[in-house]
Amino acid sequence: MARTRRQRSPQAWLNQIFRAGQVAQGNIIRRSMASIQRFASPDALEAEVRRRGFHMAVIGDQFVILCNQTGTIHVVC
Asked: According to the model, what pLDDT value does residue 55 have?
């Protein structure tokens, strides 16, 4: 018998991401574009990042979220 995966709402899925221990420690989390598009949406992720006062970058096919609320970020490219 095949298992069925319980579908979560996009907001529930995003909440799960932001409950990770890395978030509580102010670290970085990353998720692939494919998983964001599958379980939520890039717009919903961006809204949640902004709501929490975090910062996000899109690098290749990854969303990289800086889980702190510092006002200054120095980026070297």
From this structure: 92
